Amino acid sequence: MKILLVEDDADLREITTRSLEKERYVVSQAPDYMTALRKIEDYDYDCILLDIMLPDGSGLDLLDELHAMGKRTNVIILSAKDSLEDKVKGLDLGADDYLPKPYHLAELHARLKSLFRRNMREGERKVQYGNIEIMPDQFKVIIGGKEVELSRKEYDILFYFMARPGRLVNKSTLAEAVWGDHIDQVDNFDFIYAQIKNLRKHLKENGATPELKAVYGIGYKFVVE
Fold first, then answer.
1. What pLDDT tens digit does each residue of the chain (225 aa) get?
2. How far apart are CA 125 and CA 79, in angstroms?
3. What is the rounded distance in angstroms from the CA atom of residue 16 to the CA atom of residue 106?
């Protein structure tokens, strides 16, 4: 899962980022309004953790910008400005949740997991496609009833496609989602090809019914024939 943390407090930003990365999220940072705006224009995120009071603008205005761009991104407002008016306005503008500062990191993790579960089919704790099941809370992969060990990046790639069955995903989009912003600027995608090759091998050896198919010149599709 890829997260954008919009927070002007440098210490809090670093502490929160380290904590999220330990939970295996891909985290990008924005210390101010303009940096955040450029990032949401250029990249897509599964969730934005958004401070309201920024040195050069309001986080609520960023919600307006997201809406204008037509981006359906989950947003959790993180703000010390704990007034009912701001909370209601943020939710009205499309935020999914509101967590006042100071917050406990454990509660933030719980809110994120709850939010992502709501986005899954009927709030289930697992994602299933073909004979593959993933339990995101445990980072567990089961193929045909048997647990399979994958590397972190293999797991991240598989989870990304499991959440988008049958959808064509181009290489740069996959790279950004799994490795983070600016990875699309690398000279080649050999690192993706290597991970895809290893993942395909695991899927085939364990009898997975979905197949990760290459679409020449574009990217990949995860389909059951």
1. 899 999 999 999 999 999 999 999 999 999 999 999 999 999 999 999 999 989 999 999 999 999 889 888 999 998 876 667 777 888 888 899 999 888 999 999 999 988 887 776 555 678 899 999 999 888 899 999 999 999 999 999 999 999 899 999 998 889 888 888 877 666 677 888 899 999 999 999 999 999 999 998 889 999 998
2. 29
3. 11
Q: Which two tokens stand for residue 217?
A: 């010149």
Task: Give pTM, 2 decimals.
Answer: 0.81
Phi and psi torsions of 127, nearest 5°: -115, 130
CA distance 147 to 140: 7
Structural domains of the chain ordered from first start: 2-119 (3.40.50.2300), 124-224 (1.10.10.10)
